[in-house]
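Handout, page 2. Input:
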Amino acid sequence: MSLHTLNNSVGIIGGVSSKATLNFIKKLVNMSNECKKDENGLPFVLCSDPILNKSLQVNDQTQIVKILRQKRVFLEKSGARCIVMPCHISHSWYDHVSKGSSVPILHMGECVAKQLKEAKLKPLEAGSPLRIGVLATNETLKAGFYQEKLQKEGFEVVVPDKATMEHTIIPSMEAIRRKDIEGARNLLRIALQVLLVRAVNMIILASDDLREILPHDDLLLKKCVDPLDSLARSTIKIAQSATEGS
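Output:
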């Protein structure tokens, strides 16, 4: 069956990490199977290209945008009714990629910001604004799209200061590369605690590598939001509405 005949087909632009892309697909399949309206899951097509990772390593932004736009056009022609990018850093070029698209392209930052807005959180301190922390790599934080989308929904955004980045987050990432998982966990826990001390309601943990090192039963994860979860839920919602409208 051609995707062109399906109203709820999803196009997925693979990110820098194939592991993160597969993690998103797993979430999408599991969540859609849990929905009574989509017992058979959602139809999707994945477009992934390792050249994207090479272009990022040399910081060739023109080539990166070109690759991402080519992927978008391919997915449009494949019959996708909405497109997602389960990759944090790819959202740095979201505006360039989405320009001229014939189908909706979900923004991961917007999805997680709306989810937090709908949760109707209450400030931890009386008279204070709702604070959301964002913990991510330097590249993602500098891109600023999570901060922008959260502020648009009325949240005050708290990000790690320079000392926290230099003494906990960056060393934690380096520990992961050395396969020192326990050391990476301890450093990440410190970074999360530093943000929580600043009275944030929730923390957006926008790093797949960091999120995976914490055990699933770690209490700190209850204060964290996974943007991939938000993206998967929003994708299913759009797909369901497309099916109902057909």
